[in-house]
Amino acid sequence: MIERWKQRARELKTETYAIYLAYKDPRTPWYARLFAAGVVGYAFSPIDLIPDPIPIVGYLDDLVLVPLGIAIALKMIPSSVMTECRDKAQAAMDQGKSSNWVAAAIIVAIWLFLAALAIVVIVRAIQS
User: Helices (H) and strands (E) in the chain — how many of each?
Assistant: First the structure.
């Protein structure tokens, strides 16, 4: 059973990378790109809406939100684009080249910007 879960996790990682590749494809509609960027950003982000140390609920967002987001993104992206992107993603995973440090740095920078913005808003609200 544990091996089956590990296999499913690998499949979700490959599918998420395929959605990332589809996001960059010009044949993907703008609204699908926008949604795909959010899904991929959340899936690969080191920051969760609910922190993982919180028992049970902490992992719930990863177990529900990410697969749900992937399922919705797959409905939005044309199947021909996804077929090509899945092949590319699988090839990259087989070669061990699925990491994109630039994308990870951008995601972390966005989270830091949003956190700083929230702090500024809170401080201004308290001072008012």
Answer: 5, 0
Q: What is the pLDDT of residue 82?
A: 93
If 0-12 CB within 10 Å is exposed, 13-18 middle and 19+ buried, where does residue 9 land?
exposed
Neighbours of 70 (CB within 10 A): 19
Decide: pTM greater than 0.85. Answer: no
**Which two three-digit tokens encode residue 74?**
């797959």
CA distance 18 to 74: 10
Q: What's the mean pLDDT in 3-17?
A: 81
Cα–Cα distance measured from residue 127 to residue 125, given in angstroms and rounded to the nearest whole number:
6
